[in-house]
Amino acid sequence: MAIERTFSIVKPDAVARNLVGAIYSRFETAGLKIVASKMLLLSSEQAEGFYGEHKERPFFPHLVKFMMSGPVMVQVLEGENAIAKNREIMGATNPADAAAGTIRHDFAQSIDANSAHGSDAPASAAREIAFFFNENEIFSR
Ligand code: IDP
């Protein structure tokens, strides 16, 4: 299996509840290496641009507002099958549907305050990594 990179966000609800370490620990326990990481408060341009594919959805304004409601952690995760593995340990978008032991089941509060984002495919991973990181900010190990 090839080594992949994926992009991840610890969303504002989880940062606010002091869950950064708990969520990073899930990544590391699953064999994903944190190869880039930073905390930031998203601008409206960043939040709208990042979620541009959802622009026409009814929940878009609320999603953008929520993503700007407090600082987030953005990170690049690297490992075997990293994209699918991260989606698996995050669990379903709606925490009510997320399997026991997943990040969203264990930490999320609602479908918007769902604690984590993870890229869903190689093309979105590449786009999302480049949206937040320069190559010289990523430290493959
Ligand atoms: P994902 O985060 O599991 O990849 P997406 O479909 O890409 O899910 O949606 C992005 C984010 O938009 C979700 O994480 C969730 O917070 C929010 N979202 C998705 N669908 C709904 C909805 O039906 N109502 C409210 N918020 C939603």
TrEMBL record:
<dbReference type="GO" id="GO:0046872">
    <property type="term" value="F:metal ion binding"/>
</dbReference>
<feature type="active site" description="Pros-phosphohistidine intermediate">
    <location>
        <position position="117"/>
    </location>
</feature>
<keyword id="KW-0546">Nucleotide metabolism</keyword>
<dbReference type="InterPro" id="IPR023005">
    <property type="entry name" value="Nucleoside_diP_kinase_AS"/>
</dbReference>
<keyword id="KW-0547">Nucleotide-binding</keyword>
<feature type="binding site">
    <location>
        <position position="11"/>
    </location>
    <ligand>
        <name>ATP</name>
    </ligand>
</feature>
<keyword id="KW-0460">Magnesium</keyword>
<keyword id="KW-0808">Transferase</keyword>
<dbReference type="InterPro" id="IPR036850">
    <property type="entry name" value="NDK-like_dom_sf"/>
</dbReference>
<dbReference type="GO" id="GO:0005737">
    <property type="term" value="C:cytoplasm"/>
</dbReference>
<keyword id="KW-0479">Metal-binding</keyword>
<feature type="binding site">
    <location>
        <position position="114"/>
    </location>
    <ligand>
        <name>ATP</name>
    </ligand>
</feature>
<feature type="binding site">
    <location>
        <position position="104"/>
    </location>
    <ligand>
        <name>ATP</name>
    </ligand>
</feature>
<dbReference type="InterPro" id="IPR001564">
    <property type="entry name" value="Nucleoside_diP_kinase"/>
</dbReference>
<feature type="binding site">
    <location>
        <position position="93"/>
    </location>
    <ligand>
        <name>ATP</name>
    </ligand>
</feature>
<feature type="domain" description="Nucleoside diphosphate kinase-like">
    <location>
        <begin position="3"/>
        <end position="140"/>
    </location>
</feature>
<dbReference type="GO" id="GO:0005524">
    <property type="term" value="F:ATP binding"/>
</dbReference>
<dbReference type="GO" id="GO:0006228">
    <property type="term" value="P:UTP biosynthetic process"/>
</dbReference>
<keyword id="KW-0418">Kinase</keyword>
<dbReference type="GO" id="GO:0006241">
    <property type="term" value="P:CTP biosynthetic process"/>
</dbReference>
<dbReference type="GO" id="GO:0006183">
    <property type="term" value="P:GTP biosynthetic process"/>
</dbReference>
<keyword id="KW-0067">ATP-binding</keyword>
<comment type="similarity">
    <text>Belongs to the NDK family.</text>
</comment>
<dbReference type="Pfam" id="PF00334">
    <property type="entry name" value="NDK"/>
</dbReference>
<feature type="binding site">
    <location>
        <position position="87"/>
    </location>
    <ligand>
        <name>ATP</name>
    </ligand>
</feature>
<dbReference type="InterPro" id="IPR034907">
    <property type="entry name" value="NDK-like_dom"/>
</dbReference>
<keyword id="KW-0597">Phosphoprotein</keyword>
<keyword id="KW-0963">Cytoplasm</keyword>
<feature type="binding site">
    <location>
        <position position="59"/>
    </location>
    <ligand>
        <name>ATP</name>
    </ligand>
</feature>
<comment type="subunit">
    <text>Homotetramer.</text>
</comment>
<protein>
    <recommendedName>
        <fullName>Nucleoside diphosphate kinase</fullName>
        <ecNumber>2.7.4.6</ecNumber>
    </recommendedName>
</protein>
<comment type="function">
    <text>Major role in the synthesis of nucleoside triphosphates other than ATP. The ATP gamma phosphate is transferred to the NDP beta phosphate via a ping-pong mechanism, using a phosphorylated active-site intermediate.</text>
</comment>
<dbReference type="GO" id="GO:0004550">
    <property type="term" value="F:nucleoside diphosphate kinase activity"/>
</dbReference>
